[in-house]
Design brief:
Mean pLDDT of chain A: 91
Helix content of chain A: over 70%
CATH topology of the largest domain in chain B: Rossmann fold
Radius of gyration of chain B: 25 Å
Mean pLDDT of chain B: 84
CATH class of the largest domain in chain B: Alpha Beta
CATH architecture of the largest domain in chain B: 3-Layer(aba) Sandwich
Order of helices and strands of chain B: EEEHEEHEHHHEHEHEEHEHEEHEH
Oligomer: heterodimer
Number of strands of chain A: 0
Helix content of chain B: 25-40%
Structural class of chain A: mainly alpha
Distance between the termini of chain A: 25 Å
Number of strands of chain B: 14
Low-confidence stretches of chain A: none
Number of domains of chain A: 1
Largest sheet of chain A: none
Number of helices of chain A: 11
Shape of chain B: elongated
Strand content of chain A: under 5%
Chain lengths: 236, 326
């Protein structure tokens, strides 16, 4: 498992993907931070910045998950890892962790950098800031697991990327439909599914345990499904 | 070492392999021979744990691949039909990745150096795999299969797509490996198995049609040939005359026709062509032969394709040998 994890991390940086991801993520998040925090005039308010970061995921998460498994299939290297003494779960978790490390690492570093001016020129609520970072990371983990899962369904990276983009948009924005729906019942369900609705608690400064459970179980679910995809193909 | 029992794999309603049984002992070099789509790759994929069988068992060293996948996979080195190479890695990185993947405990540097020496890729050690030629990629694939010194190495069409010189190199390499590994390889080229393997398992349409020692392969190919002859003459006398012909091992009357002729089945030793002596014997007695043909056996169908390619292959080798001599 560590071997696959290491190879995966290396492959991010022997191809442009890793660099592009880090560059785009940092540039866009820095811009958003500037726009919604520094230039907004209230230097210690950052809720809006974190809410917008979620939308950046639509573009950047597929970048790091699209080739995760689809490329192994296309290049037939999956025959190597599937005939090696590694469990299916080990393979899937290693793939997930590599993408998650890249994403989480970049985001944590960015968050630390952005905190410095906040603390210097204002009085940010540190606990709130840390909780927001944690929530974003967990939401990102769920999206990455989903991306890895979608990548396992196809040999085509492009299809995997498009599928992941569509799925992330759906999960983020599904609560927007609530404005047009009369049924209270359906509205409740859509809000429960929607990442942005789930995140609203954190934006308000509440550490929402149910959201944490939701993001984590979604991560686990998609990783489990990915293992099942491998198993199903083996038995097909 | 390797034991396969009633192995069956179905894709939908189609059998890829059907009730395959064989056993392979320690240190044997066994060739799977059969036309494309015969089930060679499927059998190998199941044996290596890449696919699961629909029913039946595949065991290595007494361990079932489905029950102890990790333990079994440690014992196997596998080179699939298309070598599973990461093109953006150097040979060194690739081999050491496999080394880590297989959780080897041998001394890494020495072990990898040894493998590279055996497969003759020492000079390519620091090159990117993506920049290597097909022959070298194939060697890197073989090197990958050898990492961790597995007891069993499985090669799926190891010489496919190589030039004649490379084919000869790879064959001698595999023969060398057979000294301390159990080797299974698949091919659709008869001359290849003949030159490398101790034993040949012929697969067609998902079933084993022959399992013989290499020295007996000719016999297996021709041994099944039976001659069916119809002769217009008194059956007992004709039969006696046929039996007297040199090389005939078995003869029997199968049908007596109403016009006084009878059909006979005649088997002969492998390389004897008894058709001419049979003709003269019948002619001497004034019994006209009204029909004579070889009865096609199962194995022959397989070899219509295989043998054709053998001829091609041999002529290629002759050309390359000629070049070498110059």
């Amino acid at each position: 498992m560590t071997a696959i994890y290491k190879r995966e991390m290396r492959s991010y940086f022997t191809s442009p993907v890793g660099y592009i991801f880090v560059a785009v993520f940092l540039a866009v998040s820095a811009f958003l931070f500037m726009q919604f925090t520094v230039q907004a005039g209230e230097s210690s308010s950052f809720s809006e910045y974190f809410s917008y970061i979620l939308y950046v995921f639509i573009v950047i998460i597929p970048l790091i998950t699209m080739k995760s498994i689809s490329e192994e299939r296309k290049m037939r290297t999956e025959q190597l890892i599937l005939t090696s003494p590694v469990s299916l779960a080990g393979i899937v978790v290693a793939k997930f962790l590599a993408a998650f490390t890249l994403f989480g690492g970049t985001f944590v570093v960015a968050s630390i950098i952005y905190y410095i001016p906040l603390a210097k020129y204002g009085t940010p609520n540190t606990a709130h800031y840390i909780c927001s970072v944690i929530a974003i990371i967990l939401a990102g983990a769920a999206f990455i697991a989903m991306g890895v899962f979608i990548s396992s369904l196809t040999e085509n990276q492009f299809v995997a990327a498009l599928g992941t983009i569509a799925a992330i948009i759906l999960l983020l924005l599904i609560s927007v439909l609530n404005n047009y729906i009369n049924s209270e019942f359906i509205r409740t369900i859509l809000s429960a599914i929607s990442f942005s609705a789930r995140y609203s608690g954190f934006a308000a400064g509440v550490f929402d345990y149910s959201a944490v459970v939701y993001f984590s179980s979604l991560t686990a679910l998609f990783l489990f499904l990915t293992v099942r995809v491998f198993e199903k193909r083996r038995w097909a | 070492m390797i034991k396969i029992e009633h192995l069956t794999k179905k894709y939908g309603d189609r059998y890829a392999i059907h009730d395959v049984n064989f056993e392979i002992g320690d240190g044997e070099i066994v060739g799977f021979l059969g036309p494309n789509g015969a089930g060679k790759t499927t059998t190998m994929s199941i044996l290596t744990g890449y696919l699961s069988s629909t029913s039946g068992k595949a065991m290595i060293d007494g361990l079932d691949i489905l029950e102890h996948p990790t333990a079994v996979k440690k014992k196997i080195g596998y080179l699939p039909e298309f070598p599973p190479l990461y093109l953006e890695m150097t040979v060194k990185e690739y081999l050491s990745f496999i080394y880590d993947l297989k959780k080897c405990t041998l001394n890494k540097k020495e072990h990898l150096a040894e493998i590279c020496k055996v497969t003759k890729i020492e000079n390519e050690f620091d090159r990117l795999i993506g920049n290597l030629s097909k022959g070298y990629r194939q060697r890197v694939g073989i090197a990958g299969a050898l990492v961790g010194n597995p007891q069993v190495v499985i090669f799926d069409e190891p010489t496919n797509g190589l030039d004649p010189k490379q084919i000869i190199d790879i064959r001698s390499l595999i023969k060398e490996l057979g000294k301390d590994h159990t080797v299974i390889l698949s091919t659709h080229i008869l001359s290849e198995v003949k030159s490398i393997c101790d034993r040949i398992i012929i697969i067609n349409e998902g079933q084993i049609v022959a399992d013989v020692k290499t020295e007996n392969i000719e016999q297996a190919l021709r041994g099944n040939k039976k001659l069916s002859v119809t002769v217009a003459g008194p059956a007992p006398a004709v039969l006696a005359a046929i039996k007297k012909i040199n090389g005939v091992t078995y003869a029997a009357c199968s049908v007596n026709y109403s016009d006084g002729s009878s059909a006979f089945i005649v088997e002969s030793v492998n390389d004897a062509d008894i058709r001419k002596p049979l003709f003269y014997a019948m002619a001497q007695n004034g019994w006209p032969i009204t029909s004579m043909e070889y009865m096609s056996a199962n194995i022959e169908d397989v070899f219509i394709s295989v043998v054709d390619e053998t001829e091609e292959e041999l002529s290629k080798e002759r050309i390359s040998e000629g070049r070498d001599n110059k």
